[in-house]
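My current task is to audit a protein record that another person submitted. My question to you is simply how this chain folds and whether the C-alpha coordinates agree. This is what I was given:
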Amino acid sequence: MEYLLIEGGKVWTGAGTVEEALLLGGDKVIAVGSKSSVQSHPKAAKAKKIALKGETVIPGMTDSHLHLTAVAKYKVAIDLSDVKSKEEFLQRIKKGAENSTPGSWVYASRLNEAHWDRPALPTREDLDSLNLPNPIVVTRICSHTNVVNTNALEKCGIPLDADIEGAVKGLDGKLNGILHEQAGFNVVEKMKKSLYTQERVTELVAEKCHEIAAYGLTAIHPCGAFSYGLEESLEVYQSLRAANRLSLRVFAYFDFMPNLPISSGLGDDWVKYQGWKTFLDGSLGAATAAFTEPYSDNPESCGLLNHSLDEVKGWLEECQSRGIQAQIHVIGDRALDQALDAIEYVVSKRGTTSHSLPVRLAHTQLCRPDQIKRMASLRVVCDIQPMFLPSDMHMAPSRLGEKRLEMAYPWRSLYDGGLLLTGSSDTPAESINPWTGVWAAVNRTGADGKPEEGWTPKEKLTLEQALKIYTVNPYKAMGYENIGTLEVGKKADVVVLNNDIWGMPTQKLKDVTPQYVFVDGLQSVGDLTDWPTISK
Protein backbone atom coordinates (compact mmCIF):
# COMPACT_ATOMS: atom_id res chain seq x y z
CA MET A 1 0.00 0.00 0.00
CA GLU A 2 1.15 3.57 -0.64
CA TYR A 3 -0.74 5.99 1.63
CA LEU A 4 -4.32 6.10 2.89
CA LEU A 5 -5.96 8.96 4.77
CA ILE A 6 -9.09 8.23 6.80
CA GLU A 7 -10.88 11.31 8.12
CA GLY A 8 -14.32 12.52 9.12
CA GLY A 9 -14.92 9.74 11.64
CA LYS A 10 -14.10 8.89 15.25
CA VAL A 11 -10.77 7.07 15.43
CA TRP A 12 -10.71 5.00 18.63
CA THR A 13 -7.01 4.28 18.97
CA GLY A 14 -7.23 1.68 21.71
CA ALA A 15 -4.67 3.75 23.62
CA GLY A 16 -7.11 5.93 25.52
CA THR A 17 -8.01 8.55 22.91
CA VAL A 18 -10.55 9.20 20.17
CA GLU A 19 -9.05 11.14 17.26
CA GLU A 20 -10.31 12.74 14.04
CA ALA A 21 -8.01 11.31 11.37
CA LEU A 22 -5.64 8.46 10.61
CA LEU A 23 -2.87 8.18 8.00
CA LEU A 24 -1.51 4.81 6.92
CA GLY A 25 1.69 4.30 4.96
CA GLY A 26 2.77 0.86 3.80
CA ASP A 27 2.05 -1.53 6.66
CA LYS A 28 2.24 1.09 9.43
CA VAL A 29 0.30 3.89 11.07
CA ILE A 30 2.27 7.04 10.27
CA ALA A 31 -0.01 9.73 11.74
CA VAL A 32 -3.07 9.92 13.97
CA GLY A 33 -4.69 12.92 15.65
CA SER A 34 -6.70 15.97 14.77
CA LYS A 35 -7.79 16.44 11.16
CA SER A 36 -5.53 19.44 10.67
CA SER A 37 -2.45 17.79 12.15
CA VAL A 38 -2.81 14.62 10.10
CA GLN A 39 -3.53 16.54 6.89
CA SER A 40 -0.32 18.52 7.43
CA HIS A 41 1.78 15.35 7.38
CA PRO A 42 4.14 15.40 4.36
CA LYS A 43 2.66 12.16 2.99
CA ALA A 44 -1.01 13.18 3.38
CA ALA A 45 -1.13 14.98 0.02
CA LYS A 46 -0.18 11.75 -1.78
CA ALA A 47 -2.73 9.62 0.06
CA LYS A 48 -5.91 8.08 -1.20
CA LYS A 49 -8.78 9.12 1.01
CA ILE A 50 -11.73 7.60 2.84
CA ALA A 51 -14.08 10.43 3.81
CA LEU A 52 -16.37 9.34 6.64
CA LYS A 53 -19.46 10.93 8.12
CA GLY A 54 -18.94 10.24 11.79
CA GLU A 55 -18.46 6.46 11.65
CA THR A 56 -16.05 4.77 14.08
CA VAL A 57 -12.58 3.50 13.17
CA ILE A 58 -10.96 0.92 15.47
CA PRO A 59 -7.87 -1.33 15.54
CA GLY A 60 -8.24 -4.73 13.91
CA MET A 61 -10.21 -7.25 15.96
CA THR A 62 -8.99 -10.65 17.18
CA ASP A 63 -10.80 -13.85 18.09
CA SER A 64 -8.56 -15.14 20.88
CA HIS A 65 -9.90 -18.67 21.15
CA LEU A 66 -11.56 -20.63 18.37
CA HIS A 67 -11.38 -23.86 16.38
CA LEU A 68 -11.37 -22.47 12.87
CA THR A 69 -10.49 -25.61 10.92
CA ALA A 70 -13.31 -27.49 12.63
CA VAL A 71 -15.75 -24.76 11.63
CA ALA A 72 -14.42 -24.81 8.07
CA LYS A 73 -14.99 -28.56 7.95
CA TYR A 74 -18.55 -28.14 9.13
CA LYS A 75 -19.37 -26.91 5.65
CA VAL A 76 -19.57 -30.57 4.66
CA ALA A 77 -21.28 -31.70 7.88
CA ILE A 78 -24.97 -31.79 8.74
CA ASP A 79 -25.78 -28.61 10.67
CA LEU A 80 -27.98 -29.20 13.72
CA SER A 81 -27.73 -25.72 15.25
CA ASP A 82 -31.37 -24.79 14.61
CA VAL A 83 -32.95 -28.16 15.50
CA LYS A 84 -35.61 -27.82 18.22
CA SER A 85 -36.64 -31.41 19.02
CA LYS A 86 -35.53 -35.03 18.86
CA GLU A 87 -37.98 -35.67 16.03
CA GLU A 88 -36.51 -32.81 13.99
CA PHE A 89 -33.02 -34.02 14.87
CA LEU A 90 -33.70 -37.49 13.44
CA GLN A 91 -35.31 -36.05 10.31
CA ARG A 92 -32.27 -33.80 9.73
CA ILE A 93 -29.86 -36.74 10.07
CA LYS A 94 -31.90 -38.89 7.71
CA LYS A 95 -32.15 -36.17 5.07
CA GLY A 96 -28.47 -35.29 5.39
CA ALA A 97 -27.48 -38.90 4.82
CA GLU A 98 -29.59 -39.38 1.70
CA ASN A 99 -26.67 -39.11 -0.73
CA SER A 100 -24.17 -41.05 1.37
CA THR A 101 -22.92 -44.37 0.05
CA PRO A 102 -23.51 -47.40 2.31
CA GLY A 103 -20.70 -47.80 4.82
CA SER A 104 -19.45 -44.20 4.52
CA TRP A 105 -19.39 -42.00 7.58
CA VAL A 106 -22.20 -39.55 8.30
CA TYR A 107 -21.16 -36.56 10.39
CA ALA A 108 -23.46 -34.03 12.06
CA SER A 109 -22.38 -31.09 14.19
CA ARG A 110 -23.52 -28.28 16.51
CA LEU A 111 -26.12 -30.33 18.38
CA ASN A 112 -27.59 -28.29 21.25
CA GLU A 113 -30.29 -30.28 22.99
CA ALA A 114 -30.54 -27.58 25.69
CA HIS A 115 -32.71 -25.62 23.21
CA TRP A 116 -35.10 -28.52 22.64
CA ASP A 117 -38.64 -28.56 23.96
CA ARG A 118 -37.65 -31.61 26.02
CA PRO A 119 -33.89 -31.28 26.63
CA ALA A 120 -32.17 -34.68 26.58
CA LEU A 121 -29.28 -36.02 24.54
CA PRO A 122 -30.23 -38.49 21.81
CA THR A 123 -28.80 -41.99 22.13
CA ARG A 124 -27.44 -44.85 20.05
CA GLU A 125 -30.90 -46.36 19.95
CA ASP A 126 -32.34 -43.14 18.50
CA LEU A 127 -29.77 -43.13 15.70
CA ASP A 128 -30.19 -46.86 15.11
CA SER A 129 -33.94 -46.32 14.61
CA LEU A 130 -33.13 -44.58 11.30
CA ASN A 131 -31.87 -47.91 9.89
CA LEU A 132 -29.10 -46.19 7.95
CA PRO A 133 -26.28 -48.36 6.55
CA ASN A 134 -23.71 -45.85 7.81
CA PRO A 135 -21.62 -45.18 10.90
CA ILE A 136 -22.92 -41.90 12.39
CA VAL A 137 -21.14 -39.38 14.61
CA VAL A 138 -23.00 -36.41 16.10
CA THR A 139 -20.91 -33.75 17.86
CA ARG A 140 -22.45 -31.57 20.54
CA ILE A 141 -21.95 -27.82 20.12
CA CYS A 142 -19.38 -27.76 22.94
CA SER A 143 -17.35 -30.56 21.25
CA HIS A 144 -17.03 -32.32 24.62
CA THR A 145 -19.73 -34.91 23.87
CA ASN A 146 -20.38 -37.10 20.84
CA VAL A 147 -23.31 -39.41 20.12
CA VAL A 148 -22.77 -42.40 17.85
CA ASN A 149 -24.80 -45.29 16.47
CA THR A 150 -24.04 -49.00 16.80
CA ASN A 151 -22.44 -49.07 13.36
CA ALA A 152 -19.88 -46.45 14.44
CA LEU A 153 -18.98 -48.40 17.58
CA GLU A 154 -18.54 -51.56 15.52
CA LYS A 155 -16.42 -49.71 12.98
CA CYS A 156 -14.06 -48.76 15.81
CA GLY A 157 -14.08 -52.20 17.45
CA ILE A 158 -15.88 -51.02 20.59
CA PRO A 159 -18.15 -53.71 22.10
CA LEU A 160 -21.45 -52.64 23.63
CA ASP A 161 -20.42 -53.98 27.04
CA ALA A 162 -17.10 -52.10 27.12
CA ASP A 163 -16.16 -50.17 30.26
CA ILE A 164 -14.79 -46.81 29.07
CA GLU A 165 -14.50 -43.71 31.25
CA GLY A 166 -16.90 -41.11 29.90
CA ALA A 167 -18.96 -43.62 27.91
CA VAL A 168 -22.53 -43.73 29.24
CA LYS A 169 -24.42 -47.01 29.69
CA GLY A 170 -28.16 -47.49 29.59
CA LEU A 171 -30.35 -49.41 32.01
CA ASP A 172 -29.50 -52.60 30.10
CA GLY A 173 -25.83 -52.20 30.97
CA LYS A 174 -24.82 -51.52 27.35
CA LEU A 175 -23.28 -48.39 25.87
CA ASN A 176 -26.02 -45.99 24.86
CA GLY A 177 -23.85 -44.13 22.34
CA ILE A 178 -23.21 -41.00 24.44
CA LEU A 179 -19.45 -40.50 24.66
CA HIS A 180 -18.17 -37.75 26.92
CA GLU A 181 -14.67 -36.28 26.63
CA GLN A 182 -11.92 -38.85 25.85
CA ALA A 183 -14.38 -41.66 25.32
CA GLY A 184 -15.19 -40.25 21.87
CA PHE A 185 -11.66 -39.44 20.68
CA ASN A 186 -10.98 -42.61 18.66
CA VAL A 187 -14.38 -42.57 16.95
CA VAL A 188 -14.06 -38.94 15.92
CA GLU A 189 -10.51 -39.46 14.64
CA LYS A 190 -11.52 -42.42 12.48
CA MET A 191 -14.48 -40.51 11.05
CA LYS A 192 -12.49 -37.41 10.14
CA LYS A 193 -9.65 -39.33 8.52
CA SER A 194 -12.24 -40.86 6.23
CA LEU A 195 -13.99 -37.59 5.31
CA TYR A 196 -11.29 -34.95 4.83
CA THR A 197 -8.23 -34.69 2.58
CA GLN A 198 -5.49 -32.07 3.11
CA GLU A 199 -6.37 -30.32 -0.15
CA ARG A 200 -10.04 -30.09 0.74
CA VAL A 201 -9.29 -28.78 4.23
CA THR A 202 -6.97 -26.08 2.84
CA GLU A 203 -9.68 -24.81 0.51
CA LEU A 204 -12.29 -24.82 3.26
CA VAL A 205 -9.98 -22.90 5.62
CA ALA A 206 -9.19 -20.29 2.94
CA GLU A 207 -12.90 -19.72 2.35
CA LYS A 208 -13.65 -19.44 6.06
CA CYS A 209 -10.82 -16.98 6.74
CA HIS A 210 -12.00 -14.69 3.96
CA GLU A 211 -15.58 -14.97 5.22
CA ILE A 212 -14.79 -14.03 8.83
CA ALA A 213 -12.58 -11.08 7.86
CA ALA A 214 -15.82 -9.37 6.84
CA TYR A 215 -16.72 -9.13 10.55
CA GLY A 216 -13.64 -7.00 11.23
CA LEU A 217 -11.37 -9.83 12.33
CA THR A 218 -7.75 -9.26 11.39
CA ALA A 219 -6.29 -12.02 13.58
CA ILE A 220 -7.30 -15.34 15.11
CA HIS A 221 -5.85 -17.66 17.75
CA PRO A 222 -6.92 -21.11 16.53
CA CYS A 223 -6.60 -23.84 19.15
CA GLY A 224 -5.77 -27.29 17.87
CA ALA A 225 -7.40 -30.02 19.93
CA PHE A 226 -6.58 -33.17 17.98
CA SER A 227 -7.91 -35.44 20.71
CA TYR A 228 -11.33 -33.78 20.45
CA GLY A 229 -11.39 -33.85 16.66
CA LEU A 230 -10.69 -30.10 16.57
CA GLU A 231 -7.35 -30.26 14.82
CA GLU A 232 -5.41 -27.34 13.36
CA SER A 233 -2.44 -27.33 10.98
CA LEU A 234 0.28 -24.70 10.66
CA GLU A 235 1.01 -26.17 7.24
CA VAL A 236 -2.46 -25.19 5.99
CA TYR A 237 -2.10 -21.57 7.12
CA GLN A 238 1.49 -21.34 5.87
CA SER A 239 0.51 -22.66 2.44
CA LEU A 240 -2.28 -20.08 2.20
CA ARG A 241 0.14 -17.34 3.23
CA ALA A 242 2.66 -18.47 0.60
CA ALA A 243 -0.08 -18.36 -2.04
CA ASN A 244 -1.17 -14.86 -0.92
CA ARG A 245 -4.59 -16.21 0.04
CA LEU A 246 -4.59 -15.66 3.81
CA SER A 247 -6.98 -12.89 4.90
CA LEU A 248 -5.86 -12.46 8.51
CA ARG A 249 -3.08 -13.19 11.00
CA VAL A 250 -2.84 -16.58 12.71
CA PHE A 251 -1.34 -17.31 16.14
CA ALA A 252 -1.84 -21.04 16.70
CA TYR A 253 -1.95 -23.26 19.79
CA PHE A 254 -1.86 -27.07 19.86
CA ASP A 255 -2.68 -29.75 22.42
CA PHE A 256 0.71 -31.45 22.06
CA MET A 257 4.28 -30.32 22.63
CA PRO A 258 6.31 -29.66 19.45
CA ASN A 259 8.85 -32.40 18.72
CA LEU A 260 11.39 -29.76 17.65
CA PRO A 261 13.19 -27.32 19.98
CA ILE A 262 10.99 -24.33 19.13
CA SER A 263 9.44 -21.63 21.29
CA SER A 264 6.37 -19.42 21.08
CA GLY A 265 6.59 -16.80 18.35
CA LEU A 266 8.17 -18.96 15.66
CA GLY A 267 7.02 -17.71 12.25
CA ASP A 268 6.41 -14.37 10.56
CA ASP A 269 3.95 -11.54 11.24
CA TRP A 270 1.15 -13.53 9.59
CA VAL A 271 1.50 -17.10 10.82
CA LYS A 272 3.10 -18.02 14.15
CA TYR A 273 3.37 -21.03 16.41
CA GLN A 274 2.20 -19.53 19.69
CA GLY A 275 1.83 -22.28 22.26
CA TRP A 276 0.47 -25.42 23.88
CA LYS A 277 -3.02 -26.14 25.16
CA THR A 278 -4.67 -28.66 27.44
CA PHE A 279 -8.19 -29.35 28.71
CA LEU A 280 -8.57 -29.78 32.47
CA ASP A 281 -12.34 -30.35 32.38
CA GLY A 282 -15.32 -30.42 30.04
CA SER A 283 -18.26 -28.07 29.54
CA LEU A 284 -21.27 -26.83 31.46
CA GLY A 285 -23.70 -27.92 28.77
CA ALA A 286 -22.35 -31.47 28.72
CA ALA A 287 -22.25 -31.47 32.55
CA THR A 288 -18.56 -32.45 32.48
CA ALA A 289 -17.11 -29.17 33.83
CA ALA A 290 -15.41 -29.90 37.17
CA PHE A 291 -16.88 -28.16 40.22
CA THR A 292 -16.00 -28.32 43.91
CA GLU A 293 -19.68 -28.89 44.73
CA PRO A 294 -22.14 -31.18 42.88
CA TYR A 295 -24.30 -30.02 39.99
CA SER A 296 -27.58 -28.64 41.29
CA ASP A 297 -29.52 -30.78 38.80
CA ASN A 298 -27.38 -33.89 39.46
CA PRO A 299 -26.25 -34.12 43.11
CA GLU A 300 -24.25 -37.27 42.33
CA SER A 301 -21.84 -35.52 39.97
CA CYS A 302 -19.19 -32.82 40.32
CA GLY A 303 -18.07 -33.23 36.72
CA LEU A 304 -14.79 -34.64 35.43
CA LEU A 305 -11.14 -33.72 35.80
CA ASN A 306 -9.23 -34.95 32.76
CA HIS A 307 -5.74 -35.00 34.28
CA SER A 308 -3.88 -35.36 37.58
CA LEU A 309 -2.21 -32.40 39.23
CA ASP A 310 1.21 -33.96 38.70
CA GLU A 311 0.56 -34.22 34.95
CA VAL A 312 -0.39 -30.55 34.73
CA LYS A 313 2.65 -29.52 36.78
CA GLY A 314 4.94 -31.48 34.45
CA TRP A 315 3.47 -29.88 31.32
CA LEU A 316 3.74 -26.36 32.72
CA GLU A 317 7.34 -26.97 33.77
CA GLU A 318 8.14 -28.06 30.22
CA CYS A 319 6.41 -24.99 28.79
CA GLN A 320 8.37 -22.72 31.11
CA SER A 321 11.71 -24.32 30.31
CA ARG A 322 11.08 -24.25 26.55
CA GLY A 323 9.64 -20.73 26.31
CA ILE A 324 6.22 -21.98 25.22
CA GLN A 325 3.05 -20.15 26.21
CA ALA A 326 0.51 -22.38 27.95
CA GLN A 327 -3.24 -22.18 27.45
CA ILE A 328 -5.44 -24.13 29.87
CA HIS A 329 -9.13 -24.92 29.41
CA VAL A 330 -10.94 -24.41 32.73
CA ILE A 331 -14.67 -23.97 33.16
CA GLY A 332 -15.48 -25.26 36.65
CA ASP A 333 -13.94 -23.92 39.87
CA ARG A 334 -12.38 -27.31 40.73
CA ALA A 335 -10.54 -27.29 37.40
CA LEU A 336 -9.48 -23.71 38.08
CA ASP A 337 -8.10 -24.73 41.48
CA GLN A 338 -6.05 -27.43 39.77
CA ALA A 339 -4.69 -24.98 37.20
CA LEU A 340 -3.74 -22.40 39.83
CA ASP A 341 -2.10 -25.03 42.05
CA ALA A 342 0.03 -26.16 39.11
CA ILE A 343 0.99 -22.61 38.09
CA GLU A 344 1.90 -21.67 41.67
CA TYR A 345 4.04 -24.80 41.98
CA VAL A 346 6.00 -24.07 38.81
CA VAL A 347 6.63 -20.37 39.43
CA SER A 348 7.63 -20.95 43.06
CA LYS A 349 9.99 -23.75 42.03
CA ARG A 350 11.69 -21.39 39.58
CA GLY A 351 11.75 -18.55 42.07
CA THR A 352 9.61 -16.21 39.93
CA THR A 353 6.23 -14.54 40.35
CA SER A 354 4.75 -15.70 37.04
CA HIS A 355 5.53 -17.56 33.83
CA SER A 356 7.79 -15.74 31.38
CA LEU A 357 4.79 -15.76 29.02
CA PRO A 358 1.52 -15.44 30.94
CA VAL A 359 -0.54 -18.60 31.23
CA ARG A 360 -3.85 -18.20 29.43
CA LEU A 361 -6.91 -19.61 31.19
CA ALA A 362 -9.60 -20.31 28.62
CA HIS A 363 -13.24 -19.76 29.66
CA THR A 364 -13.06 -19.25 33.49
CA GLN A 365 -16.85 -19.44 33.60
CA LEU A 366 -17.09 -19.89 37.36
CA CYS A 367 -14.59 -18.11 39.62
CA ARG A 368 -14.75 -17.75 43.38
CA PRO A 369 -13.49 -14.43 44.83
CA ASP A 370 -10.46 -16.16 46.36
CA GLN A 371 -9.56 -17.59 42.97
CA ILE A 372 -9.70 -14.15 41.32
CA LYS A 373 -7.14 -12.90 43.83
CA ARG A 374 -4.87 -15.89 43.13
CA MET A 375 -5.17 -15.35 39.37
CA ALA A 376 -4.24 -11.69 39.71
CA SER A 377 -1.17 -12.51 41.81
CA LEU A 378 -0.03 -14.97 39.13
CA ARG A 379 -0.74 -12.48 36.31
CA VAL A 380 -2.64 -15.01 34.21
CA VAL A 381 -4.75 -14.05 31.20
CA CYS A 382 -8.47 -14.90 31.06
CA ASP A 383 -9.76 -15.79 27.58
CA ILE A 384 -13.51 -15.23 27.92
CA GLN A 385 -16.42 -15.92 25.55
CA PRO A 386 -19.15 -13.31 26.15
CA MET A 387 -21.67 -15.14 23.93
CA PHE A 388 -21.65 -18.08 26.34
CA LEU A 389 -23.92 -16.04 28.62
CA PRO A 390 -26.86 -15.51 26.21
CA SER A 391 -26.59 -19.15 25.19
CA ASP A 392 -26.36 -20.52 28.74
CA MET A 393 -28.58 -18.14 30.70
CA HIS A 394 -31.61 -20.46 30.61
CA MET A 395 -29.58 -23.62 31.26
CA ALA A 396 -27.01 -22.38 33.80
CA PRO A 397 -29.40 -21.75 36.74
CA SER A 398 -30.48 -25.39 36.89
CA ARG A 399 -26.87 -26.60 36.56
CA LEU A 400 -25.32 -24.19 39.06
CA GLY A 401 -28.03 -23.24 41.52
CA GLU A 402 -28.67 -19.76 42.90
CA LYS A 403 -25.58 -19.56 45.11
CA ARG A 404 -23.10 -20.14 42.30
CA LEU A 405 -24.82 -17.91 39.75
CA GLU A 406 -23.28 -14.86 41.42
CA MET A 407 -19.83 -16.22 40.52
CA ALA A 408 -20.69 -17.19 36.95
CA TYR A 409 -19.37 -15.33 33.89
CA PRO A 410 -17.75 -12.78 36.25
CA TRP A 411 -16.22 -10.50 33.63
CA ARG A 412 -16.30 -7.20 35.53
CA SER A 413 -15.01 -8.88 38.69
CA LEU A 414 -12.09 -10.28 36.72
CA TYR A 415 -11.46 -6.92 35.07
CA ASP A 416 -11.65 -4.96 38.32
CA GLY A 417 -9.49 -7.62 39.97
CA GLY A 418 -6.61 -6.66 37.70
CA LEU A 419 -6.85 -9.53 35.21
CA LEU A 420 -6.13 -9.10 31.50
CA LEU A 421 -9.18 -10.30 29.54
CA THR A 422 -9.30 -11.32 25.90
CA GLY A 423 -12.49 -11.91 23.92
CA SER A 424 -13.34 -14.83 21.71
CA SER A 425 -16.10 -17.03 20.32
CA ASP A 426 -14.85 -20.58 20.90
CA THR A 427 -16.55 -21.24 17.58
CA PRO A 428 -18.09 -23.70 16.71
CA ALA A 429 -19.62 -23.25 20.15
CA GLU A 430 -20.79 -19.72 19.29
CA SER A 431 -21.01 -17.32 16.36
CA ILE A 432 -17.60 -16.14 15.17
CA ASN A 433 -18.93 -12.60 14.72
CA PRO A 434 -17.03 -10.53 17.34
CA TRP A 435 -19.80 -7.93 17.46
CA THR A 436 -22.13 -10.44 19.06
CA GLY A 437 -19.44 -10.81 21.72
CA VAL A 438 -19.14 -7.05 22.23
CA TRP A 439 -22.93 -6.84 22.47
CA ALA A 440 -23.10 -9.69 25.02
CA ALA A 441 -20.28 -8.26 27.16
CA VAL A 442 -21.94 -4.84 27.37
CA ASN A 443 -25.58 -5.94 27.79
CA ARG A 444 -25.59 -9.45 29.34
CA THR A 445 -29.07 -10.17 27.96
CA GLY A 446 -30.71 -12.59 25.60
CA ALA A 447 -31.31 -11.69 21.96
CA ASP A 448 -34.70 -10.35 23.03
CA GLY A 449 -33.02 -7.77 25.28
CA LYS A 450 -34.20 -9.45 28.47
CA PRO A 451 -33.71 -9.18 31.33
CA GLU A 452 -33.62 -5.47 30.57
CA GLU A 453 -31.22 -4.68 33.39
CA GLY A 454 -28.96 -7.57 32.33
CA TRP A 455 -28.25 -10.96 33.88
CA THR A 456 -26.17 -10.19 37.02
CA PRO A 457 -25.72 -6.62 35.69
CA LYS A 458 -22.83 -5.83 38.04
CA GLU A 459 -20.68 -7.98 35.75
CA LYS A 460 -21.27 -5.92 32.59
CA LEU A 461 -18.28 -4.44 30.78
CA THR A 462 -18.27 -0.92 29.40
CA LEU A 463 -18.10 -0.51 25.62
CA GLU A 464 -14.46 0.55 25.79
CA GLN A 465 -13.58 -2.43 27.97
CA ALA A 466 -15.40 -4.75 25.57
CA LEU A 467 -13.57 -3.26 22.58
CA LYS A 468 -10.21 -3.73 24.30
CA ILE A 469 -10.72 -7.44 24.88
CA TYR A 470 -11.12 -7.87 21.11
CA THR A 471 -8.42 -5.42 19.94
CA VAL A 472 -5.67 -4.34 22.33
CA ASN A 473 -5.59 -7.14 24.89
CA PRO A 474 -5.02 -10.18 22.63
CA TYR A 475 -1.60 -8.80 21.64
CA LYS A 476 -0.77 -7.93 25.24
CA ALA A 477 -1.61 -11.52 26.17
CA MET A 478 1.10 -12.78 23.79
CA GLY A 479 3.67 -10.06 24.53
CA TYR A 480 3.59 -8.28 21.15
CA GLU A 481 4.02 -4.51 21.31
CA ASN A 482 4.05 -3.47 17.63
CA ILE A 483 0.39 -4.13 17.00
CA GLY A 484 -3.06 -3.82 18.56
CA THR A 485 -3.50 -0.04 18.77
CA LEU A 486 -3.68 2.77 16.21
CA GLU A 487 -0.53 4.56 17.31
CA VAL A 488 2.30 5.82 15.14
CA GLY A 489 4.65 3.01 14.19
CA LYS A 490 2.15 0.24 14.91
CA LYS A 491 0.98 -2.26 12.30
CA ALA A 492 -1.79 -0.99 10.02
CA ASP A 493 -4.57 -3.38 11.08
CA VAL A 494 -7.63 -1.14 10.83
CA VAL A 495 -11.41 -1.56 10.76
CA VAL A 496 -13.70 1.17 9.44
CA LEU A 497 -17.21 0.55 10.77
CA ASN A 498 -20.61 1.43 9.31
CA ASN A 499 -21.81 3.19 12.47
CA ASP A 500 -20.83 5.55 15.23
CA ILE A 501 -20.80 2.87 17.90
CA TRP A 502 -20.55 5.45 20.69
CA GLY A 503 -23.85 7.05 19.73
CA MET A 504 -26.00 3.97 19.10
CA PRO A 505 -28.15 1.93 21.53
CA THR A 506 -26.01 -0.84 23.02
CA GLN A 507 -28.57 -3.48 21.98
CA LYS A 508 -27.72 -2.60 18.35
CA LEU A 509 -24.03 -3.45 18.74
CA LYS A 510 -24.56 -6.99 17.49
CA ASP A 511 -25.64 -5.54 14.13
CA VAL A 512 -22.44 -3.53 13.51
CA THR A 513 -20.54 -4.39 10.32
CA PRO A 514 -17.32 -3.02 8.78
CA GLN A 515 -17.14 -0.98 5.59
CA TYR A 516 -13.41 -1.60 5.17
CA VAL A 517 -10.86 -3.89 6.81
CA PHE A 518 -7.10 -3.57 6.41
CA VAL A 519 -4.54 -6.15 7.53
CA ASP A 520 -0.90 -5.05 7.40
CA GLY A 521 -2.08 -2.15 5.28
CA LEU A 522 -3.59 -4.50 2.71
CA GLN A 523 -7.31 -4.32 2.06
CA SER A 524 -9.26 -7.49 2.78
CA VAL A 525 -12.79 -6.06 2.94
CA GLY A 526 -14.40 -3.13 1.10
CA ASP A 527 -14.48 -1.61 -2.36
CA LEU A 528 -11.71 0.87 -3.07
CA THR A 529 -11.12 1.19 -6.81
CA ASP A 530 -7.78 -0.30 -7.91
CA TRP A 531 -6.87 -1.07 -4.31
CA PRO A 532 -4.62 -4.13 -3.80
CA THR A 533 -6.31 -7.12 -2.22
CA ILE A 534 -4.79 -10.06 -0.38
CA SER A 535 -7.52 -12.52 -1.24
CA LYS A 536 -7.97 -13.94 -4.70
Summary: The CA atoms of residues 295 and 338 lie 18 Å apart. Confidence is low (pLDDT under 50) at residues 530-536. The longest strand covers residues 3-12. Residues 333-349 form the longest helix (17 residues).
